Amino acid sequence: MKISMFVFSHGKNVNYNPSDDFLPMNYTRDFVAYTLPHDNDTTRGWFDSLNEDDTLMLLGKLSFQ
To answer: What's the average pLDDT block by block, 10 residues per block, for the chain (65 residues)?
Structure first.
């Protein structure tokens, strides 16, 4: 199981690991991917709570920049 929000919620001055298993571009075929686990905020609420650094990194990784 992969939870995509885990890699995009680190905060300022964190070195992101490009080979992190939770990055969508590193997903392989044999697992299930979720944006968030059931006990977290909604995806929209989570996105709205990201700081500017995490928002820019997320949008860049998803090619929305």
So the answer is: 72 67 81 80 86 83 67
User: Which residue has tokens 């609420």?
Assistant: 45
For the chain, the maximum distance between any two Cα atoms, rounded to a whole number of angstroms, is 33
pTM of the full structure: 0.58
What are phi and psi for residue 2, nearest 5 degrees? -120, 135
Grouping H, G, I as helix, E, B as strand and the rest as coil, residue 2 is strand
Both tokens assigned to 33: 């991917």
Q: For residue 37, give its domain range.
A: 2-61
Q: Rounded to the nearest 5 degrees, what angle is found at the Cα of 14, between the Cα atoms of 9 and 20?
A: 65
Query: What's the domain count of the chain?
Result: 1
CB 43, CB 14: distance < 8 Å: no
